[in-house]
Design brief:
The structure holds two protein chains of two kinds. Chain A is 20% helix and 35% strand. By secondary structure, chain A is α+β, with helices and mostly antiparallel strands. Chain B has one domain: OB fold (Dihydrolipoamide Acetyltransferase, E2P). Classes of the chains: A alpha+beta, B alpha+beta. Chains A and B meet through loops of A and β4 and β6 of B.
């Protein structure tokens, strides 16, 4: 495991009892004591995730906003601090990555990208920037990052950042923690309220230690995967990639065809929207005991109709899973998921599974 | 109920409590800790013939499925429905209420291939 990368929080996670695994080349905790206990902590109290492996990319220059509008499908606002979730498409409309980007200043856009696609995204942005007066900078190594999530997360963090609740959903704010500059975003991947905080390694380590002693439960990738699937969030690389477009990924809403600016594959997406798609990312709930897994085949009337891309056990909903299935599959349709040779009945449900998601 | 000291172990982390030609089987404390949150147990069927070293049961945690291997050959004569109904009991009491199934041993010589608790501990 010697060539795996460690985040600046590695020692802190290990000391807190984290069981480290290889996550796309990074050593991260899959769990601490128990995935189920960690899931419960996030849904009911406050949980803490080391997400320092995520990437941060900056567009800096007079055309920063123009480049963002060009590479991303959503329609961003020219408002200091405002951000949005978007897809980055290739020329065919395939999904390179999903990101959250923020308008820091008229000449500075701040993008948070997935760790596995960080270099691919950066190279794509650099290529696209050729037509614009803007510099693309990969600043990922400058930031450690924590996700602090749960109904009590902000109550606890108010002690450190008194007006933290004033940061609106999907907004970014620069503030000070322990006297040092950090970025705080009112975002998350769990379906609960909370924030993600980025800063230098030392400050974020201090924040980790402070949080653990002030009511945050350290949580790992295992719990994170249950939480995000319950909330109906796709995982870049597993649930979507260049072989899928946003409409197939059930993310048509992130494609703002009406926005003034042209963006990569805009015309193609207009055509896809018009024609409709054959397959869509669809949620299923197992009807009997069992746990499905990624890659399991979906059957209807004995015929294979699709395949799962994500599946897990949810303490709230038991067997939950999602995959690409015919777009015209009716709500509540009964299918069978083949798990280790056994066909388990399942029902199509409208995601999110977790309806209370924030 | 089935104390570690009184059990035999396989190298794949199953324990077998041998009495009157019957092996009660479960997973070791080490195994339950490694697997962590057990959420589903797929027990073998009563009457099923099992073979030493072959998978006969599956335990699912949140993250993955683990095969459970028969420590001895024979026939399944009883299964622990309580473990199927409440899988977390296998984490809580792997050598007690979390036992999994009982095998009527077909070849007593096979027991010699199993490890004592001390020998098993040494492999960890």
């Amino acid at each position: 495991m010697s060539d795996l990368k460690k985040t600046p929080l590695y020692d802190a996670c290990l000391k807190a009892g984290g069981r480290m695994v290889d996550f796309h080349g990074w050593l991260l905790p899959v769990q601490y004591e128990s995935i189920i206990a960690e899931h419960k902590a996030v849904r009911n109290e406050a949980g803490l995730f080391d997400v320092s492996h995520m990437g941060q990319i900056i567009f800096k220059g007079p055309d920063a906003f123009k480049l963002l509008q060009n590479v991303a499908t959503n329609n961003f606002k020219k408002e200091i601090g405002a951000g949005a979730y978007a897809h980055i498409l290739d020329d065919n409309g395939g999904i390179i990555d999903d990101i959250i980007a923020f308008y820091l200043a008229p000449d500075e856009m701040f993008l948070v990208v997935n760790s596995a696609t960080r270099y691919k995204d950066y190279n794509w942005f650099v290529k696209k920037s050729a037509a614009y007066n803007v510099e693309v900078k990969d600043v990922s190594d400058d930031y450690a990052m924590l996700a602090l999530q749960g109904p009590k997360a902000l109550d606890i963090l108010e002690k450190l950042v008194p007006n933290i609740k004033e940061i609106a959903r999907f907004h970014i704010k620069q503030d000070k923690i322990f006297g040092k500059n950090v970025y705080i975003t009112r975002t998350g991947y769990t379906g609960e309220d909370g924030v993600e905080i980025m800063g230098d390694a030392q400050t974020i380590n201090e924040l980790f230690a402070w949080s653990i002693t002030n009511g945050f439960t350290p949580c790992g990738l295992g719990a994170r995967d249950v939480l995000r699937l319950e909330a109906g969030y796709l995982l870049s690389g597993s649930d979507m990639d260049e072989t899928r477009n946003p409409y197939e990924a059930s993310c048509g809403w992130v494609v703002k065809l009406k926005k003034e600016e042209d963006f990569t594959a805009k015309a193609k997406m207009a055509a896809v929207k018009e024609a409709g798609v054959k397959e869509k990312w669809t949620g299923f709930l197992l009807q009997t005991a069992g746990v499905a897994r990624e890659g399991c085949l979906i059957y209807k009337y004995g015929k294979q109709i699709g395949k799962l891309t994500s599946a897990t056990y949810s303490p709230l909903f038991k067997g939950i899973c999602a995959g690409y299935a015919p777009a015209d599959l009716e709500e509540g349709a009964l299918v069978e998921i083949e798990v280790r040779g056994r066909k388990i009945p399942a029902k199509k449900v409208k995601m999110p599974f977790y309806k209370n998601k924030v | 109920m089935y104390n570690q000291e009184n059990c035999k172990f396989s190298s794949t982390h199953e324990w077998a409590y041998i009495e009157n030609g019957v092996a009660t089987v479960g997973i070791s404390d080490h195994a339950q800790h490694e697997i962590s949150d057990i959420v589903f147990v797929e027990l073998p069927k009563i009457g099923a013939k099992v073979e030493q070293g072959k998978s006969c049961c599956v335990i699912e945690s949140v993250k993955s499925a683990s095969d459970i291997y028969a420590p001895v050959s024979g026939e399944i004569i009883e299964v622990n429905q309580a473990a199927a109904d409440n899988p977390s009991i296998v984490n809580q009491a792997p050598h007690g209420d979390g036992w999994l199934f009982k095998i009527k041993i077909s070849n007593p010589d096979e027991v010699k291939k199993l490890l004592s608790f001390e020998e098993y501990k040494a492999t960890l």
